[in-house]
Design brief:
This protein has seven helices and seven strands, in the order βαβαβαβαββαααβ. By secondary structure, the chain is an alpha/beta fold. The protein has one domain: LmbE-like (Rossmann fold), CATH 3.40.50. β4, α4 and β5 form a beta-alpha-beta unit. α2 runs antiparallel to α5 and α5 runs antiparallel to α7.
Length: 238
């Protein structure tokens, strides 16, 4: 079944940390959602690939995704090459999404940076009818970059209000007990002295405050965002 919204990330738990609220909100609105994890997380310091797979399945149920797939690419050795592009192209053709969420192209984890580039290239190549990969040619309409936890001066193109979804988002993050119980940092999340779950809440509360709501998730687009009606624009200016 084609999905409306597909999140692509390097590791199991990346989606939960960066855009789970947005996936939940889309599902609440009747859209079909999916997740493509590029690696199994076998190189992670904590837990194991098998355990992370079980945790990812539990999280997927909370998020209400139609399907969660794993591309089986090597964790901590992710590359953007002909072989990996073919794998991701076939996955994109399988999901046939209208919108794709990717990691932001800058990050301290090499897999996050490469996953962003690989995902974008595969989105384009997937639309080439003669590209040598399985499935029917399909090119997503829109690519969004998840901006959560960024420390560089990138202003979000927009923020999604996930106030109604935040508790379920946090529940999906908590599924990864092997990774996060007792942790004070993870991936792009730098330590502040708080436990990781408190850090997630602090970050989401910060982005929510930018649009005058309790919790939010930030995104960036290279394209200018179109507005149909300036009279109904939200977020009070003064």
């Amino acid at each position: 079944m084609p999905v409306d919204l597909l999140a692509i990330a390097a590791h199991r738990d990346d989606v939960e940390l960066t855009c789970a609220g947005t996936l939940l909100k889309a599902a609440d609105s009747g859209y079909t959602t999916g997740i493509l994890d590029l690696t199994a997380g076998e190189s992670g310091t904590r837990g194991s690939a098998e355990l992370r797979g079980e945790e990812a399945a539990l999280a997927a149920k909370i998020l209400g995704v139609a399907e969660r797939r794993n591309a089986g690419l090597p964790d901590a050795h992710l590359q953007n090459n002909e072989e990996t592009r073919r794998v991701v192209v076939e996955a994109i053709r399988h999901f046939a999404p209208r919108v794709v969420i990717l990691p932001y192209p800058v990050g301290r984890h090499p897999d996050h940076r490469i996953a962003s580039e690989l995902g974008r290239d595969a989105c384009f190549l997937s639309g080439l009818a003669r590209y040598p990969a399985g499935g029917t040619a399909h090119r997503p309409h829109k690519i969004l970059y998840a901006l959560a936890y960024r420390e560089d001066p990138v202003k979000p193109s927009f923020v999604v209000d996930i106030s109604a979804q935040f508790e379920r988002k946090l529940a999906s993050v908590r599924c990864y007990a092997s990774q996060f119980d007792g942790a004070t940092a993870a991936g792009e999340i730098f330590p502040t002295g708080q436990d990781l779950y408190s850090l997630v809440e602090t970050q989401n509360a910060h982005y929510g405050s930018l649009i005058r709501v309790r919790y939010g998730e930030p995104f960036f687009t290279h394209e200018t965002v179109m507005v149909d009606d300036v009279v109904t624009l939200g977020v009070k200016s003064m």
